[in-house]
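RECORD TYPE: inverse folding
INPUT: structure tokens
STRUCTURE:
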């Protein structure tokens, strides 16, 4: 019995004795934090999206022109009287029943374009700006109010030139060539002059923009000064209505002064 008890106790002890340590399964390491994904870049606009945006910009510009046209139509008689003031007789004649309305509409539209020019320039900038870099935006942005100032300068110059240009042209009339001016051709001449002078004054913006995209430099413009002066003279003569000598001389001189100023501005940017 003693031996049986000893064997039994030995078996129990063997079962209770600590055996070799069981291997502990390794815990998976915590995954390393992944770097934050970069914000997705703005997708490039498709052609349809560009056309849709362009249509929206045009609609806003046309709305501004329509509002300005309404203002011009409200004051068209006062504006008409100002434009007729340089004439010796102070009157012009209409040749058809609808001429007076067409003239009123033409004056109103031209006034509308002039008044809407800030909105038009802003819409152009909003359409072009997304395609420029940040530095290019900072460089070009100040030229938006400058472009508006140039347009206003052109309109003011046209008004100043209107009286001497008209007097020059009417100096060739006499008792045979009587100066009974028709309203339609006269207001076509006046309104065209205002728009031409205003738009031509924007050419420094074009030169500066060409310098930003590395097409022209101040050195190139300086070397081509003689050719550019000749081109300005020819262009001013061809673009001004009426055929007088005063308008192209004043327009050409103004363009030359703006050209020299633009060359200086481009040179200061290091181009």
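DESIGNED SEQUENCE:
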């Amino acid at each position: 019995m003693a031996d049986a008890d000893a064997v039994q106790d030995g078996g129990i002890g063997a079962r209770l004795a600590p055996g070799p340590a069981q291997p502990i399964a390794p815990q998976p390491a915590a995954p390393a934090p992944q770097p934050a994904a970069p914000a997705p870049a703005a997708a490039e606009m498709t052609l349809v999206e560009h056309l849709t945006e362009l249509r929206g910009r045009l609609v806003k510009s046309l709305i501004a022109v329509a509002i300005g046209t309404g203002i011009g139509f409200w004051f068209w008689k006062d504006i008409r009287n100002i434009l007729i003031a340089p004439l010796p007789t102070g009157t012009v004649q209409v040749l058809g029943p609808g001429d007076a309305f067409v003239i009123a509409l033409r004056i109103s539209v031209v006034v509308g374009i002039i008044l809407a020019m800030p909105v038009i320039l802003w819409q152009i900038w909003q359409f072009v700006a997304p395609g420029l870099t940040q530095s290019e935006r900072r460089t070009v942005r100040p030229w938006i109010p400058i472009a508006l100032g140039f347009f206003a300068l052109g309109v003011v110059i046209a008004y100043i030139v209107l009286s001497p240009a008209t007097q020059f042209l009417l100096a060739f009339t006499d008792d045979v060539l009587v100066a009974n001016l028709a309203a339609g051709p006269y207001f076509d001449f006046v309104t065209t002059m205002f728009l031409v002078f205003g738009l031509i004054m924007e050419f420094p913006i074009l030169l500066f923009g060409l310098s930003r995209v590395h097409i022209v430099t101040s050195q190139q413009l300086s070397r081509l000064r003689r050719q550019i002066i000749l081109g300005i003279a020819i262009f001013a003569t061809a673009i001004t209505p009426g055929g007088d000598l005063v308008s192209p001389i004043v327009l050409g001189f103004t363009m030359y002064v703006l050209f020299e100023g633009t060359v200086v501005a481009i040179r200061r940017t290091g181009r």
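NOTES: DSSP finds eleven helices and no strands in the chain.
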